[in-house]
Amino acid sequence: MATTTPLLPDKTSPVHVRSVNSPEQENPPLPPRKVPRMVKRSDGRSLLRYRIPPQSYLSYIWDFFTSIINAQWYVVVPFFFACYVLSWLVFGCAWTALAYSYPDGNMTCVYNVRDFTSAFLFSIETQVTIGYGFRYPSDSCAAGITLLAFQSVVGLLIDSFLLGLMFAKLTRPRSRRKTIFFSNTAVIYDQFVRRVDRDEEGRPVDKTERRRVLEFRIADMRRSQIVEAHVRLQLYWYRESAGGGGGGELQQYDLDVGYDEGRDRIFLLTPVSVFHYITEQSPLYGLTREDLASSRLELVVVLEGIVEATGLTAQVLWSYTRDEIVFDSVFQPVAYCSESGGEWVVDFSKLSSLRPLAE
């Protein structure tokens, strides 16, 4: 069976490459139109602007729990306070109405409740169960007993809902992405692979093949691992219509990062390089530096896995636009053995460091 071994590029003096410019021309073309980004790098949120029909906004109400969890904290915290205050006000009005039902009679439902202020305080005492003092219910009023029991149940429901909401909000693994890093650029270069094959007489024969690859890096700064981490790579490419006229279509492709071979499943003990082989079946096949400069595309990386501490699934998004894809450069090593030889060292500062590919 043939085996493959990648050949390392020739060693050159390491330099940091920020961009690769096209060859100088006498009349350089105008700068291409700016490509809007689809994914925000800082938090992985989508930057797409949705035009939703007004009648479709009801869907957010029916899925209210998901909507409030996805809301920002400046919305959740006022909502938390509003739920309690609103319930106290509603039942305060109910206790006020009940108190006015027996203004001067011998029977009263709540002692020492004569106006809305005292009824509101009694509502808080009932729902928060801080104990009755100067104001207390009567055991001879059926309406008061019924209202007291109903408010107690409603208070428990509100506590359960808001407690579940805050727990789900706090335990979401969105903050886990803060310690997962991607290389600032992706690189495209020719990788030389040595194949050990057999001739007709069965003797080993070395063969060298060249293949085009797209590479980027992923690293995890935490010592606790992402369980069952796997990667997907999506390509969004806006192509102009063949007839012109300014129209076009945003096309989406799923780029193969080794699904069949298992290369999409990664272990982030050290920084990992993810490869997409640009074969004839790849949408990037035949893409040149000039084509990239005039194209409107974005590579979206999706990393999914289970957070070891909570057991919840985390998803991290990252993207590369055409300005963040570099040709004919390779990444510098980030892991090396210490001078004493007693430990391995991972230098995260070199995660995005490049050097030109040797000719």
Automatic annotation (TrEMBL):
Q: Pfam families of this UniProt entry?
A: IRK, IRK_C
Q: Name one GO cellular component term.
A: plasma membrane
Which portions of the sequence form the region Disordered? 1-37
Task: List, alphabetically, the InterPro entries matched.
Answer: Ig_E-set, IRK_C, K_chnl_inward-rec_Kir, K_chnl_inward-rec_Kir_cyto, Kir_TM
Q: Which SUPFAM superfamilies match?
A: E set domains, Voltage-gated potassium channels
| Compartments where located | Membrane
Question: The Inward rectifier potassium channel C-terminal domain covers which part of the protein?
Answer: 213-353
Which ranges carry the Potassium channel inwardly rectifying transmembrane domain? 50-173
Q: Does the keyword Plastid apply?
A: no
> What GO terms are given for molecular function?
inward rectifier potassium channel activity
* One GO BP annotation of this record: regulation of monoatomic ion transmembrane transport
Main subcellular location of this protein, as a coarse class: membrane
The way it spans or sits in the membrane comes to: Multi-pass membrane protein
Recite the UniProt keywords alphabetically: Ion channel, Ion transport, Membrane, Potassium, Potassium transport, Transmembrane, Transmembrane helix, Transport, Voltage-gated channel
Transmembrane feature ranges: 73-98, 142-168
Q: Which family does it belong to?
A: Belongs to the inward rectifier-type potassium channel (TC 1.A.2.1) family.
Q: What is this protein called?
A: Inward rectifier potassium channel 2
Q: Per the UniProt entry, what species is this protein from, by scientific name?
A: Geodia barretti (Barrett's horny sponge)
